[in-house]
Design brief:
Distance between the termini: 12 Å
Structural class: mainly alpha
Radius of gyration: 19 Å
Largest sheet: none
Helix content: over 70%
Strand content: under 5%
Shape: globular
Number of strands: 0
Oligomer: single chain
């Protein structure tokens, strides 16, 4: 499994390189990236989720779906506590000399991974549609936490209200797609041939388009400037290596199928998510550090994600 995951990560990175080249030569402009990102988040990802629910129904799978939801919530809560203890104002500010903004960015980036853009494509490549099915509870939990705890980190008393955050969660197309997919799974209603094929074709665009967009975002990465930032390195070590190990320790104490465990690990081991930069812009922070942090984490994930899977295998997961 380690060699397969390493191969898939390398393939995905090659597609990222194509995106970087497209950005460098002007084929993919920033406005185009935003449009493709919207399509990915609000069209392709929901189709992928609905398609992943097209599984044979069993009470065992339904019970496992609920169990994975609880496990996902536990992963987020544990990560939130650890990041607060090690990167919060008390430790982060006094010991690590982080500014308030850097502390917020690193706590957020440590907890909220790029599980949509990288996690879903990687899980789909490694395990198939059943892996995406297992990944959906993690994605639901992600959206709930990111629009509540995550936004609150940046908001610091300002911005959207709790009711607005709740509406964001409930009206998110991915949450709606989950409800539709779950209904199809429970009722075992078969879609007609044409809608079924449309879902499959749109879902298949997720991996290549996601990697092209991420590659375009990495086009401005300056290897000499960005690799010299010790605080960004600290954040990368925390996000890419420490917290996945914590997830492995949690999964070792649980008894769930190996494919489900691998799915939870991959989703948790993904690099820093794009919301880190997006929320920095939204709340008028300097986005240079968040961008540097995200880029370094994404590049290092070429090594860290396969390493996390190797560590899990060595531990007997």
């Amino acid at each position: 499994m380690f060699l397969i995951s390493a191969q898939q990560v390398i393939i995905m990175f090659c597609i990222m390189l194509v995106g970087m080249i497209c950005r460098k030569i002007g084929f993919l402009r920033s406005d185009s990236e935003k449009d493709i990102t919207n399509i990915l988040c609000f069209v392709i990802s929901p189709c992928l989720i609905v398609n992943s629910f097209r599984q044979e129904f069993s009470m065992q799978r339904l019970a496992l779906f609920g169990e994975l939801f609880l496990i996902s919530a536990a992963v987020f809560l544990i990560n939130i506590v650890i990041s607060q203890l090690l990167l919060g104002k008390k430790t982060g500010g006094r010991v690590l000399h982080l500014t308030d903004d850097e502390s917020v960015v690193m706590r957020f980036g440590s907890v909220y991974t790029n599980c949509g853009f990288i996690g879903f494509p990687l899980v789909q490549s490694l395990i198939g549609d059943i892996g995406v099915f297992y990944a959906v509870p993690f994605n639901i939990t992600y959206n709930i936490f990111v629009w509540s705890h995550g936004v609150n980190l940046f908001r610091r008393g300002e911005g959207i209200s709790k009711s607005a955050a709740a509406r964001k969660v409930l009206t998110n197309p991915n949450i709606i797609a989950t409800a539709i997919g779950l209904l199809l799974f429970l009722t075992q209603v078969s879609l007609p041939a044409i809608p079924s094929r449309v879902l499959e074709l749109i879902s298949s665009m997720n991996t290549p388009l996601s990697m092209l967009v991420i590659g375009a975002n990495l086009a401005d990465f300056n290897i000499f400037r960005d690799l010299a930032d010790p605080k960004a390195w600290l954040g990368v070590i925390f996000r890419n290596f420490l917290l996945p190990l914590v997830t492995i320790l949690l999964l070792l104490r649980l008894s769930i199928p190996q494919d489900a465990s691998l799915t939870m690990l991959v989703m948790s081991a993904c690099p820093v998510g794009g919301f880190t930069v997006l929320f920095s812009n939204l709340y008028n922070m300097d986005n240079r550090f968040p961008t540097r942090y995200m880029c370094m984490s994404t590049i290092l994930s070429i090594l860290s994600v396969p390493a996390a899977i190797l560590a899990a295998q060595a531990a007997g997961l």
